[in-house]
Design goal:
20 helices; mainly alpha; globular
Length: 417
């Protein structure tokens, strides 16, 4: 079944590469700019030529050789196929390690190979597939009790997408109560690997954080959704205003602290409204299957769904795009087990696997919560999918282990004497 999963993962993606003509989304440009600066200047700079502190260098470093060779987007996406196959294999290894059953491991690998959201975002010049690979490698090293390897994989994920940065604190804190030595090794290794980038940002841009992504999200997404509601303007318009305001003071490194304070202040001024937006975005992250993005990929939809959701809610979006909503509902029903089974499986986890299940749950919950709010949609669920699949598999935990199989018993022959 692993071979079937790998062949399906490759065949589906290669077939779609031949059909699709556009492999980019809006955010692709920011990764390309950093990769071009690395390839041309050997420095990680943004589009203005300033030190890049919004994006982290993990994915641009991978892109840089392709851009130096003027490779096509289709070739870059082919690299994503390699990452996707590795995700399938590592998921299979984790399942085999936990369940000692090749059939259960094979089913997990098959689901990860063909899951629509993972399939879609592996066809974009975006870091989701590489990020997912780093996270499953982290989980595999963690359950094998190799804290240094786990820390290296987790930090690699953080350098690819800083949304994983809090996991460098959450996982050791959760694990210190049951595996104190390994948790401390994990934390110390993460500090050693992440501190250089903090120092680099402070030295080059007078910014003390790891990435300004969180500051901008608080200011534009969280605070912007509250401001749009208070001023009764569409969120898309409020977002445009806030981005223009930020661009006007781009040379001032103090703006990030101001953005963080202003975003927190706006959220505090209307906690109920922000919570409502956050919960609805979390719901979208969990259950929105990606039909709109598939339609946009094939040129059948122009976008704007996120803003419509914030401005007018589900009803307004449904009135504008009834076919997309109908397809999304049917698709979400098919994918519902990925959300429901992990909850049901929580009561089926054997004692020796509870730490692994807890780790998977912590990673998945953080990714979904962090992806909620205004930007909440299926893209932020992609790296959580392997962990949702692995948690679901605990529903089908075999009654007894089949791997490793016990040695055959030797028959006792009577002595000739």
């Amino acid at each position: 079944m692993l071979r079937i999963a790998v062949v399906l993962a490759i065949a589906l993606r290669l077939s779609l590469i031949l059909v699709l003509g556009n492999f980019r989304v809006d955010d692709t440009a920011t990764y390309i700019a950093g990769a071009q600066s690395i390839a041309a200047r050997g420095a990680f700079l943004d589009a203005r030529g300033n030190p890049e502190i919004f994006r982290t260098p993990g994915y641009p470093l991978v892109l840089a050789p392709f851009l130096a060779l003027h490779a096509s987007d289709a070739l870059i996406v082919t690299m994503n196929i390699v990452f996707a196959v590795l995700v399938v294999i590592v998921t299979w290894k984790i399942a085999r390690q936990l369940f000692a059953d090749d059939r259960v491991a094979g089913v997990c690998a098959l689901i990860v190979a063909v899951e629509p959201a993972m399939l879609l975002w592996s066809l974009k010049v975006m870091p989701e597939t590489l990020f997912t690979l780093c996270l499953v490698l982290f989980a595999y090293a963690a359950i094998c009790e190799k804290p240094i390897a786990a820390a290296i994989a987790l930090c690699a994920a953080i350098y690819v997408k800083p949304i994983a940065w809090p996991l460098a604190l959450l996982v050791p804190f959760a694990g210190v109560w049951v595996r104190p030595k390994q948790a401390l090794i994990l934390l110390a290794t993460c500090i050693a690997l992440l501190a250089p980038w903090h120092l680099r940002n402070y030295a080059t841009a007078d910014y003390v954080g790891f990435s300004s992504l969180m500051d901008r999200s608080l200011y534009i997404s969280a605070g912007g959704s509250v401001a749009a509601r208070e001023q009764r303007v569409p969120f898309a318009e409020m977002r445009r205003r806030l981005i223009a305001r930020d661009d006007s003071r781009a040379a001032d490194p103090k703006r990030f602290a101001e953005m963080r304070r202003e975003g927190v202040s706006r959220v505090a001024s209307d906690p109920f409204g922000w919570t409502k937006t956050q919960l609805f975005g979390t719901f979208r992250t969990l259950f929105e299957p990606g039909a709109a993005e598939w339609a946009r990929t094939f040129g059948l939809y122009g976008g704007g769904g996120q803003s419509a959701m914030v401005d007018g809610g589900f009803r307004r979006f449904a009135q504008k795009h009834p076919i997309l909503i109908a397809v999304s509902i049917l698709w979400a029903i098919v994918l519902l087990p990925l959300i429901a089974l992990p909850i049901a499986a929580a009561t089926h986890v054997p004692a020796h696997s509870r730490l692994a299940f807890g780790l998977f749950a912590l990673i998945a919950i953080w990714l979904v919560l962090a992806g909620g709010g205004v930007p909440g949609y299926h893209r932020f669920r992609v790296p959580a999918i392997p962990f949702l699949v692995l948690m679901s598999a605990f529903v089908y935990t075999p009654r007894e282990c089949s791997f490793p199989s016990p040695p055959p018993a030797r028959s006792q022959q009577p002595s000739a004497s």
